[in-house]
């Protein structure tokens, strides 16, 4: 299992996340929420990509729903 607080992102996503932090984040809390979403998605030990961007920027409900689907599919426990 992926240790908490270890994330892996590809370069295009990394660049876009930096752009989001500089241009789009309105508050410090926006960055904390983004970080929590990335950590939650990284629990399945996969490399995050631009395919994950809308989920990362989305809500915690989006993350919970995706994790539930991954559990049902047997991808994670």
What are the salient characteristics of this protein?
globular, mainly alpha, 77 residues, 61% helix
SSE topology sketch:
Blueprint: H1 11-24, H2 28-42, H3 53-57, H4 60-72
Notes on the protein architecture:
- The protein is mostly helical.
- Helices cover 61% and strands 0% of the residues.
- It contains 4 helices and no strands.
- It is globular.
- The termini are close together.
- The mean pLDDT is 84.
**pLDDT averaged residue by residue:** 84
State Rg: 12 Å
Helical percent range?
A: 55-70%
Structural class based on helices, strands and sheet pairing: mainly alpha
Number of strands: 0
The tally of helices reads 4
Please write the string of helix (H) and strand (E) elements. Answer: HHHH
Calculate the terminal CA-CA distance, rounded to whole Å. Answer: 10 Å
Largest sheet: none
Unreliable stretches: none
Strand content: under 5%
What is the general shape? globular
Summed up:
The protein has four helices and no strands.
């Amino acid at each position: 299992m992926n240790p908490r607080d270890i994330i892996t992102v590809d370069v295009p996503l990394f660049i876009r996340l930096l752009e989001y932090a500089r241009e789009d984040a309105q508050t410090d809390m926006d960055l904390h929420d983004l970080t929590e979403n990335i950590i939650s998605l990284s629990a399945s030990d996969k490399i995050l990509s631009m395919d994950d961007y809308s989920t990362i920027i989305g809500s915690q409900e989006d993350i919970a729903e995706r994790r539930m689907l991954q559990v049902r599919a047997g991808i994670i426990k």
